[in-house]
Design a protein that fits this description.
Blueprint: H1 2-16, H2 23-58, H3 63-70, H4 90-113, H5 131-140, H6 145-156, H7 163-172, H8 175-182, H9 207-217, H10 225-235, H11 240-247, H12 267-282, H13 286-294, H14 297-307, H15 312-325, H16 332-337, H17 340-348, H18 353-366, E1 379-383, E2 394-399, H19 416-421, H20 434-442, E3 446-451, H21 471-484, E4 492-497, H22 499-511, H23 518-522, E5 524-530, H24 544-550, H25 553-559, H26 564-580, E6 583-589, E7 593-595, E8 599-601, H27 606-609, E9 615-619, H28 635-647, H29 649-653
Parallel strand pairs: 2-3, 2-4, 4-5, 5-6, 6-9
Antiparallel strand pairs: 1-3, 7-8
Helix pairs in contact: 1-2, 5-6, 8-17, 9-12, 9-14, 10-12, 11-12, 12-15, 14-15, 15-18, 17-18, 21-22, 22-26
Membrane topology: Single-pass membrane protein
InterPro entries: AB_hydrolase_fold, ARM-like, ARM-type_fold, SERAC1
Keywords: Endoplasmic reticulum, Lipid biosynthesis, Lipid metabolism, Membrane, Mitochondrion, Phospholipid biosynthesis, Phospholipid metabolism, Transmembrane, Transmembrane helix
């Protein structure tokens, strides 16, 4: 406006002058106009250039993310602050309007010139406090792996955003980021969208019937006879009454004598358990996993998971299937799309160790950004279950005995009923799994793994038509699973209870014969045996009925004091351990164990628990409680902790 006014004044001077203007006055006015106009043009150009460069530096977003965001179903409402201190002045408003105008001009020019409107100015008009959201999203898609991990970490540590900002991340992030957030301890659950709606059930159908159909659609190849037998048994259950009648004969879950339960009170759950147990075995075969996914198994299993919120055994078997499917990377996108990551992110935060550990296994198998190992069925990481910056320097492995379990075998000595009725938040006072709570806190640089035998379908069933599997067969299977989990890549301490100690001895002997397993031997530092019957058990001397109640017949025979297999195992391992100079610590019970209300049995006597090397420490507890410390400062735990620290001292210091 000042330029126009100046021009008008000059023109009026020229037009209204009574005498002819002198030439030098005329050119002076022209020069002044040119100088002033040039200054304005130059200054405006510099200002515009500065604003464009500032905008380019501040906002660099991906147009594809924005376009995808526009297609989402959420409507976000921006809140207006009531704080008068946040009211911006005219200069801020002018700058904002200038940014809008520049973007419109650039967008128009991009269309005219047919150039992609990306890189510097591909964005929407966003507020300053929202820039972090979009910049973190872009950073999470970086080609630099460390930048991606840093972006996920920053997202997980953010707790001051508005609800809609978490939802923006949930909708716009890629699967890697979503999985990373699920494996970050501090992540807000608002990062995870609800799973997509499940398809409607077919008319005149039920989840039980659809589960049977899914099982029937799976190939019957590559399965041993025992699995085929139980598959056909599950399919033959034609009514809930028949399922209830047969369900009372079975005990699933491998939780030991004190926890043996019947599904007779929940017929529908019993029928579904038959099918799920069979599908668990099918899911160990990659090609069968493809069939499960193609036939809608992910959605059906999710429906069952929701229906059986109050049935942990059903949920655990479902998570076992998903964890097995997650071992196949080509199925990861299907698992993410079906909403399982959101479900497992919530399960990870559960106070129930079994639920959280099953979820941790699934997410670890999905996380190919930070996890190279693969955790097969029955191998559970107790620590660390989340992504961590803590370097892991050694592994400690827990191997339970027959009729034991990966979690309950290692609980604190106490009545389980008290824990169920009122969970104790202070884990130093009571824990349902002391390796996960006490040991992880005392030795954070350890990876703690607990192993569970697959005792739920064929291996320990009285009706299984095949002979029970031997210690030799089972040790070979466990060794293969542990090597896939990276056991042997770091220093290792083995901790075993009862029959689990025999498996450890057999695994180490077998590993010494295989060149590809040499790292397992070279990195084994020490072994702890809790009441391991190196020379046999009194259990085998009891009647057939008692043996049938406790152990399958083949294992009972191998437990006999005159068992050739047990004697050979002891002799071979003793010579091998002395040659390798393993550190060994033996604990043994001194009290008898009550089995039921009438049977009192000293399962492993002192002479049988003596390996021949290492310290032998008697403890005044029974066979079940020899691996369950009464409290954190109890001798049983403190001596175990001391052994681990001393055995791994050099490795933990490095």
């Amino acid at each position: 406006m000042s330029l126009a006014a100046y021009c008008v004044i000059c023109c009026r001077r020229i037009g209204t002058s009574t005498s002819p203007p002198k030439s030098d006055t005329y050119w002076r006015d022209i020069r002044n106009i040119i100088k002033f106009t040039g200054s304005l043009i130059l200054g405006g150009s510099l200002f515009l250039t500065y604003e464009v460069l500032a905008l380019k530096k501040a906002l660099t977003l991906d147009t594809q993310v924005v376009e995808r965001e526009k297609m989402k179903s959420y409507i976000y409402v921006h809140t207006i602050s009531l704080d008068k201190g946040e009211n911006h002045g005219i200069a801020w408003q002018a700058r904002k309007e200038l940014h809008k105008a520049v973007r419109k001009v650039l967008a128009t020019s991009a269309k005219i010139l047919r150039n992609p409107f990306a890189d510097a100015f591909s964005t929407v008009d966003i507020e300053d406090h929202e820039c972090a959201v979009w910049l973190l999203l872009r950073k999470s898609k970086s080609d630099d792996k460390m930048a991606r991990l840093e972006a996920v970490r920053e997202m997980s540590e953010t707790h001051h955003w508005h609800d809609y900002q978490y939802r923006i991340i949930a909708q716009a992030c890629d699967p890697k980021t979503l999985i990373g957030l699920a494996r970050s301890k501090e992540s807000d659950l608002r990062f995870f969208l609800l799973p997509p709606p499940l398809p409607y059930l077919k008319e005149d159908s039920s989840t039980e019937e659809e589960l049977r159909q899914l099982l029937a659609s799976l190939p019957q190849t590559e399965l041993d006879e025992c699995i085929q037998y139980f598959t056909s048994l599950a399919l033959s259950e034609s009514s809930q009454s028949l399922a209830a009648q047969k369900g009372g004969l079975w005990c699933f879950g491998g939780n030991g004598l004190p926890y043996a339960e019947s599904f007779g009170e929940v017929p529908s759950a019993t029928v579904e358990m038959f099918c799920l147990e069979a599908i668990v075995k099918h899911s160990e075969i990659s090609t069968h996993c493809d069939k499960i996914e193609a036939n809608g198994g992910l959605q059906l299993l999710q429906r069952l998971y929701r229906l059986h919120k109050d049935c942990p055994k059903v949920q655990r078997n479902i998570m076992r299937i998903i964890g097995n499917m997650a071992l196949n990377e080509h199925l990861h996108s299907s698992i993410v799309r079906s909403g399982w990551v959101s479900i497992m992110a919530e399960a990870m935060k559960s106070h129930h160790i079994m639920e959280a550990s099953h979820a941790a296994r699934i997410l670890a198998n999905l996380d190919r950004e930070t996890v190279q190992e693969k955790y097969q069925d029955g191998v559970y990481v107790l620590h660390p279950q989340y992504r961590t910056s803590q370097p892991i320097k050694a592994d400690v492995l827990f191997i339970h005995g027959l009729m034991g379990a990966a979690f309950k075998t290692w609980r604190q000595q106490d009545s389980e009923q008290a824990v169920i009725q009122k969970p104790i938040e202070d884990e130093d006072k009571y824990t349902t799994c002391w390796p996960k709570t006490w040991l992880a806190k005392d030795c954070p640089a350890l990876r703690i793994i607990s192993v569970e035998y697959d005792t739920s379908l064929s291996d320990w069933r009285a009706r299984c038509p095949l002979e029970r599997r031997s210690i030799a067969f089972r040790s070979d299977e466990l060794l293969r699973k542990l090597r896939a989990a990276g056991v042997g890549d770091r220093p290792v301490v083995w901790i075993s209870h009862s029959m689990g100690g025999l498996l450890v001895k057999k695994m180490l002997l077998e590993a010494s014969k295989k060149p590809e397993m040499s790292t397992v031997i070279n990195n084994t530092r020490g072994i702890i045996f809790y009441s391991v019957p190196h020379h046999g058990s009194h259990l085998a001397e009891y009647s057939v009925n008692i043996r049938y109640l406790l152990f399958p017949s083949l294992e009972v025979k191998e437990l006999s004091k005159d068992s050739p297999a047990l004697k050979k195992l002891q002799d071979d391992f003793l010579e091998f351990a002395k040659d390798k100079n393993f550190q060994v610590l033996n604990f043994v019970e001194t009290l008898p164990t009550y089995i039921g209300s009438m049977i009192k049995l000293h399962v492993v006597p002192v002479e049988s628990a003596d390996l021949g090397i290492g310290d032998l420490i008697p403890v005044d507890v029974n066979h079940l409680n020899i691996c369950k410390p009464k409290k954190k400062d109890a001798f049983l735990y403190q001596r175990t902790l001391q052994f681990i620290r001393e055995t791994l001292a050099k490795d933990l210091e490095n």
